[in-house]
Amino acid sequence: MLKTIPYTLLLILIFSSLTTFAQGDLMIMPKRLVFDGSERSQEINLANTGSDTAVYAVSFVNYIMTEKGNFEQVEEPIEGQRFATDFLRYFPRRVSLAPNQAQTIRVQLTKTGNLKPGEYRSHMYFRAVEEQTALGSETNESSEGISINIKTVFGISIPIIIREGESNTIIKLSDLELSKQGEFPRLSLTINRTGNMSVYGSLIANHIANDGKKTEIGIVKGVSIYTPNTKRAFSFELREASKVDLNSGTLTVSYMEDKDEVLATSELSL
Q: What is the pLDDT of residue 150?
C-alpha cells in the first residue's frame, strides 16, 4: 500500500526594503513597527492576494543579526541585546483569510513602566498553516513503497521595536571598495554603529566628476544594523554607473534615514 506522508519545508523571510511586503499570497503592511513613546498601540494589516483560503499562525521569534546582515534565531539574548516579547501583546494569534480578504493584527505595549533606557526588539512571525492529509488516506494500488509529498510553507517575520529614552547612536562608513567586475560595478563598505539604538535607512552612491557634476549611480533602501551589533558589511550594485566615468572623479556614499536625515557620509577617490 502506498502511504503519503506530508512534509513541510520552512522558509523564513526578513523584511527589508518594501513598505508593503508580499510573499506567496500574503501581503503585510507596514514592514516594521517602532514604539518610540508616541503610541501605545499599532496595527499590522494582512491581505490574502491568492485564490485559496490561507491560515496563518502568529507568534514571536527572536534573532541576532550577523555582521553580514543575516539573521539567526536565538532563545536567549546575547550581551547587549534586549527582547521586546515581555512588553508586547497582540490579537488575534491565528488568522484565516479567504481570497482577497484582509485582517488587522493589533499590537499593544504592556508592562513598560520600568523599562531601562535603550532598545528592545523581537520579530512577529507569520507562519502559513498547511492543512495536513491523514496518513494512509491516499493510496495507489499500482505502486509500492513510500511517497513523500513535499510542500513549502512560508514564514514571514517583521521587526517590532520598543525604544525608551533618547538615541545617542552614531553611524560611520568605512572600508569603501569599488569592484568593476561583473555586469554592474559593485561598491562594498562597512557600516559602523555605536550607541543605544538601531538604525534603518538607505545607502545612496553618487559620482562627483572633476567638473563638479553630481550623478546618482546607485541606491538601496531598507538597510538596517540592529543592536547590539557594532558593524555590518554591505555591498550593492551601481546600476546607473554607465552614465559616468568611474576612472576619474570621486565616489561618495551616504547613509540616510527615511526622513532624509544624513547619518553618515564617506568618499572614495577614483
A: 52
Best CA proximity match to 71, nearest among 236, 191, 263, 229: 229
Rounded to 5 degrees, φ, ψ at 243 are -80, -15
CB 19 within 8 A of CB 30: yes
pLDDT exceeds 90 at position 138:
no
Strands, E, within the chain: which ranges? Answer: 3-14, 21-23, 26-29, 33-35, 41-48, 54-61, 63-65, 71-73, 88-91, 94-97, 102-109, 118-128, 146-164, 170-179, 186-194, 199-208, 214-225, 231-237, 250-257, 262-269
242 phi/psi in degrees, rounded to 5: -65, -15
Residue 207 per-residue DSSP state: E
Place of cell 539574548: 77
The pTM for the full model equals 0.82
Annotate 168-177 with b (16+ C-beta within 10 A) or e (fewer): ebebebeebe
Mean pLDDT along residues 142-168: 75
Q: Are 98 and 53 in contact (CB under 8 A)?
A: yes
The topology (CATH level 3) of 3-164 is: Immunoglobulin-like (2.60.40)
Mean of the per-residue pLDDT values of the chain: 86
Q: How far is CA 201 from CA 31, 153, 204, in A?
A: 13, 30, 10
Q: Is 80 within 8 Å of 57 (Cβ atoms)?
A: no
The CATH number for 170-269, chosen from 2.60.40.10, 3.40.50.1980, 1.10.10.10, 3.40.50.10090, is 2.60.40.10
Q: What is the Cα–Cα distance from 159 to 121, expressed in whole angstroms? A: 7
